[in-house]
């Protein structure tokens, strides 16, 4: 059953025709290019997975605009959002009505290619069998989105093996953030660099959710409050049928208040018990899986050769977007250095999935495994404090001894009085240049 125009009606061809016609008749919203681009000639089903409001739907709309620029007629493009209350809930058997209803609306599209965009597809149980059948019959390119990484991977993999491509959609990277805010940069122009530095401070504080990037400053707290509430109830409590909402809320608050910090489940369980809560460690592990599945956060393991040792050590919390601290922390910018480290982690995570930390006598913030080898990145807000500089130098020099073949970087927002050769075996780079992928200016002679 689904809702339509204020009352409940069966999800049938006639109700679908209204939804399909409405989409075809209205103009596509304005979009901006993203670093992730949907391949149009792959011949495969494309899955886009990302946290709510990271830009998946607008990436779909941008893909539709690209198709139209290539000469594809608008009525050959179908779009359905399964969170639309006129469709919800949809049974898998009702999905077969989509192409039938569209074919009756637009008989001239019966031959030739059609493009089927299904948004938040995980809302329909059994969707993957329908998508496979449509793909196998030919003539229809299918693009789907989902807010659950595990669900999309789990459902795509067995049913669509060899037929699909899965792309992760993150909130805006720093270069995308600059583009959305119309901040331009010309190398070796001081006024441009000053604007970039100011933009980075905004980015580290408020993150890269597209809606926040374009919002006025006064509206951002209201937007993030509404966003976090929707994320909590729809993407966590409802999706996973969470029984203990209080524990889930406290766990979410704990994680979002501590970006780039270590999480010990044993210690957290003890703290929750001391607060009078009744729960098992298994519940905490289960709820942490939900948070990762919904792409709210990543838990980076300690870099160890032994998987057993990895499991025995705390994991490091990294949020999908630093803006979440504004919803759960009284002073969200109190520890801006940890938020910068979170931003650095996301920068690396967009390009690689195997990311760790290391701590022993010293701490290595981010260790990235790439086909070329290891990359170590330590992060601090300012190098103006000589004690901080000495600590970071010692950590990276220890890291280079532990991992002799690794590339090593020290990323800082404020340079302070850093020496021209800060340490042995590693380079120092300002945060905005690192996030933009540019090199340091040549030293004057």
Structure explained in plain terms:
This protein has 445 residues and is α/β, with parallel strands linked by helices. It folds into two domains: 2-168, Rossmann fold (3-Layer(aba) Sandwich), CATH 3.40.50; 175-436, no CATH class. The protein is 42% helix and 18% strand. It is built from 17 helices and 15 strands. Helix 10 (245-256) packs across helix 12 (281-293). The longest helix has 19 residues, at 220-238. It starts with a strand and ends in a 9-residue tail after the last helix. Mean pLDDT is 90; it is low at 1-9.
Arrangement of strands in the largest sheet: 4-5-6-3-7
Number of strands: 15
Q: What percentage of the residues does DSSP assign to strands (E)?
A: 15-25%
Instruction: Indicate the percent of residues in helices.
Output: 40-55%
**Largest sheet entry:** 5 strands, parallel
Brief rundown of the structure:
By secondary structure, this protein is an alpha/beta fold. It is built from 17 helices and 15 strands.
Which keywords apply here?
single chain; 445 residues; alpha/beta; Rossmann fold; 2 domains; five-stranded parallel beta sheet; five-stranded mixed beta sheet; 17 helices; 42% helix; 18% strand; disordered N terminus
């Amino acid at each position: 059953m689904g809702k339509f125009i204020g009352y409940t009606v069966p999800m049938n061809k006639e109700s679908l025709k209204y939804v399909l016609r409405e989409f075809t008749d209205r103009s596509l919203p304005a979009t901006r290019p993203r670093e992730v681009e949907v391949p149009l000639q792959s011949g495969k089903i494309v899955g886009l997975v990302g946290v709510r409001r990271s830009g998946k739907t607008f990436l779909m709309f941008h893909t539709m605009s690209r198709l139209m620029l290539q000469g594809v007629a608008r009525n050959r493009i179908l779009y359905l959002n399964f969170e639309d209350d006129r469709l919800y809930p949809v049974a898998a058997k009702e999905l077969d009505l989509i192409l039938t209803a569209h074919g009756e609306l637009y008989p001239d599209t019966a031959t030739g290619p059609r493009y089927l965009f299904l948004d938040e597809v995980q809302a329909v149980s059994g969707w993957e069998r329908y998508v496979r059948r449509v793909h196998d019959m030919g003539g229809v390119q299918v693009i789907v989105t989902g807010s659950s990484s595990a669900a999309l991977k789990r459902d795509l993999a067995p049913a669509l093996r060899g037929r699909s491509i899965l792309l992760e959609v993150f909130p805006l990277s720093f270069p995308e953030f600059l583009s959305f805010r119309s901040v331009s940069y010309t190398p070796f122009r001081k006024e441009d660099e000053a604007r970039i530095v100011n933009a980075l401070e905004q980015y580290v504080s408020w993150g890269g959710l597209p809606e926040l990037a374009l919002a006025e400053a006064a509206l951002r707290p209201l937007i993030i409050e509404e966003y976090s509430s929707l994320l909590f109830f729809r993407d966590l409590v409802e999706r996973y049928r969470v029984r203990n909402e209080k524990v889930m809320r406290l766990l979410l608050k704990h994680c979002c208040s501590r970006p780039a910090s270590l999480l010990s489940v044993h210690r957290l369980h003890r703290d929750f018990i001391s607060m009078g809560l009744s729960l098992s460690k298994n519940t905490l592990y289960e709820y942490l899986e939900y948070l990762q599945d919904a792409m709210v956060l990543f838990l980076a393991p300690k870099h160890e050769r032994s998987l057993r040792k990895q499991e025995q050590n705390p994991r490091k919390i990294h949020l999908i977007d630093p803006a979440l601290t504004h919803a759960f922390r009284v002073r969200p910018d109190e520890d801006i250095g940890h938020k910068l480290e979170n931003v650095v982690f996301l920068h690396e995570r967009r390009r690689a999935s195997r990311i760790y930390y290391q701590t022993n006598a010293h701490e290595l913030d981010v260790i990235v495994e790439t086909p070329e080898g290891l990359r170590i990145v330590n992060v601090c807000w300012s190098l103006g404090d000589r004690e901080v500089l000495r600590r970071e130098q010692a950590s990276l020099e220890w890291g280079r001894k532990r991992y002799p073949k690794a590339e090593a970087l020290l990323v800082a927002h404020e340079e302070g009085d850093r020496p021209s050769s800060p340490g042995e075996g590693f380079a120092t780079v300002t945060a905005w240049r690192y996030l933009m992928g540019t090199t340091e200016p040549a030293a004057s002679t």
